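User: I'm putting together a small comparison set for a docking exercise, and I want a reference complex before I start. The sequence is below, and the ligand is beta-D-glucopyranuronic acid. Could you produce the 3D structure with the ligand included, as structure tokens?
Assistant: Of course. I'll restate your input first, then give the structure tokens for the complex.
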Amino acid sequence: MLYPIESKSRSLSFLDGSWDFVKGGKNLDLDIIKNEFHDARPMPVPSSYNDIYKDLREHFGWVYYRKEFYFHKTREDERIILRFDGVNQSAKVYLNGEFITEHEGGFLPFEIEISDKIQEENVLTLAVSNVINNSTLPVGIIKGREEDQDKNEPNFDFFNYTGIHRHVRIYTTPRSYIEDISLTNEIYDAKAVINYYLKVQGVEEDILIEIFDKDNKLVATGNKAKASLVIENPNLWDVKNPYLYKIRITYKEDIYYLDYGIRGVEVKGNQFLLNGKPFYFKGFGKHEDSIINGRGFNEVISHKDFALMKEMGANSFRTAHYPYAEETLRLADKLGFLVIDETTAVGLNGKFGGGANFKSDNVNIFDNEEGMAKRVFDHHKDVIRDLIARDKNYACVVMWSIANEPDSYSEGAYDYFKPLFDLAKKEDPQKRPTCLISVLAGDINLDVTRKLSDVICLNRYYGWYNDGPYLDKAMAAFRKELDNWKELGKPIIISEYGADAILGMRDYDDFPAMFSEDFQVLYYRENNKVIDQYPLVVGEHPWNFADFNTAQSIKRVNGNKKGLFSRDRQPKLAVGLFKERWTKMDDYIDKNKK
Ligand code: BDP
């Protein structure tokens, strides 16, 4: 799915800003949509609604958004598309009173052609629901009888923020238009080959593909829908030199531009290779979370986070636990960050209540005909397809994460996940590595990640959830586990490790108390020593980049405090530790040679 842009043939306008908002109830009330929004309050878009008005914080069920807008048609024969980048959790859309589309899942875009429906003066209305259950991704918990419930328990450790979280846009294209492009590349000594596959709506003629370098010099052209173009002496995309070529596609009247980084990604033995060299992941598990905006796309915070990560010497991050706004990937491409791109599959772990939710029902999700897995499987497939369709051409995306901390130990897990891994490989033109993010929840020899993942990604909390605060004992257990993985011969990324620390809470450093900044530092120091001893560990992603909001519980002190930065991006002591470590550490390390 192409990112919406403006060009000579395409116009683009935003419907962001202040919308009218009405709080609804458990059941969908279509009368609200048809009638005037009498009790409407203003609501910013994009944003989560939860932290704007006090009574909305714990709201459960439906809300309604409305926006009046004008549209100036410039041409009679153009396609007009309404696009939502992300509305959480599910949405029904009405234009001028008529139902036009609906969408499940809050983290991927959806769009609809409205050429024959749009007028000069328009009313766009949305009904948005935040209900999550065991047929949605992320997974929510239903307690008691459905009709009695008045609130949701997330089966995951982040606040179930809701609203029109990302941009709303209208863009146009000519009638015969560029629908999609898929790009792959091969790298040889002094040249690269870019293979492209263009999908157009219309007859495959009058096609021109032009590739320009950074100096705007034309370096290759093609005029078929599918071809391989040679680039002599290519500039490869890399974290230190995120070189992007500009591709201009012309199809009849339609013009579309995209940037493309040429780079190679491969898993070989116990190494992860970027452009043929063993790469070491330094970075974070993140969240889209900020004060007041909630999960609403926040351009400022997004830029700030990249700046902070760069300063620390980070070179990568994971989009825990859902696909992030596309603008974030575009920045990662531009600034040189490797991204592990994750689906919305978090909370598929009813059996042991992982994902730091402490309230889930103890159910084996795979052995029950009526089980959770049965219900979410098809949706999980859709999410994988839509995620890859959106992100397949970004150089920064180097691996797909199929799920975070699912029950990957139980019987039935292999049969559930194998087709999903296969699907990701099939959908991705670049055949990137795939993984699932594994939690410690049983005999690791049973974990299906062993068989399925190209890179083993471990969320491990030795010294916090496991044996905290006794770090000697915890590190012995961590070593024992890593010894066990050696024989598998696959690379490992420690995709999460961390300890909560309250900003400003200090202690003496000989045996600091848990939750102090000093304990967080000690925790990381000891874990990093272990990580450094194992050649097969090719990356470290402390959890989390910043503190973030969660549902309330006795285990959370106004949210999760495992951030290296506070929620308003103030540094904790551990920032210094990682800055020192990462700025000295190369992006490429062959740990086998140490
Ligand atoms: C992991 C989860 C993550 C949590 C983290 C924690 O993947 O979502 O926030 O634990 O407990 O299990 O902090």
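Residues 157, 321, 354-356, 404-405, 439, 459, 496, 543, 560, 562 surround beta-D-glucopyranuronic acid (CB under 6 Å). The mean pLDDT is 94.
User: Thanks, that's exactly what I needed.
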